[in-house]
Specification:
The longest helix has 11 residues, at about 75-85. Strands 1, 2, 3, 4, 5, 6 and 7 form a 7-stranded antiparallel sheet that branches. The protein contains 3 helices and 7 strands, in the order βαβββαβββα. Helix content is about 20%, strand content about 40%. The protein is α+β, with helices and mostly antiparallel strands. Strand 2 and strand 3 form a beta hairpin.
Length: about 140
């Protein structure tokens, strides 16, 4: 593991706007740096948002960048989030997500951060063109 990267980019249920119980856990160990974007494509799989990296172009995912409060706790804290994201599976099973380092941009400035990329095909999922799950759900749920 790249122990020099203590930041985490979140784009779905771990964002502050969702107030998921796991968000409380996240904020015990990390603090918000600010709104950020990463190069990627965002999809609605019907139950939750999924993201895959985009090699180039102007496709971005909106989210939040967090940094660990205490670097000595990073390994333990990120392992708990790995469990939440379904990375810890039984032998022979493929995890839904994989954690990788990516380039996140805060106010246009690049910074390295961990992200959870979807680890399966997105061929049958609807593309979220805005790259922002909160805006997408607001629009989708309008009467």
């Amino acid at each position: 593991m790249d122990t020099s990267t203590y930041q985490l980019f979140v784009y779905g249920s771990l964002r502050s706007g969702f107030r998921n119980p796991a968000y409380s856990y996240l904020t015990q160990y990390f603090h918000l740096v600010g709104e950020a974007v990463v190069r990627g494509k965002f999809y609605d799989n019907g139950s939750f948002p999924v993201a895959v990296p985009a090699a180039e172009g102007d496709q971005f995912i909106n989210g939040e960048l967090y940094i660990i409060n205490n670097p000595e706790e990073f390994s333990w804290a990120i392992e708990q989030l790995d469990d939440y994201e379904g990375l810890n599976v039984l032998p022979g099973e493929a995890p839904l997500y994989r954690r990788e380092v990516t380039e996140a941009f805060v106010d246009g400035k690049p910074s390295l951060a961990w992200i959870y990329w979807y680890n399966r095909s997105v061929d049958k999922f609807e593309l979220i063109p805005t790259g922002d799950i909160l805006k997408y759900l607001q629009e989708k749920n309008k009467p």
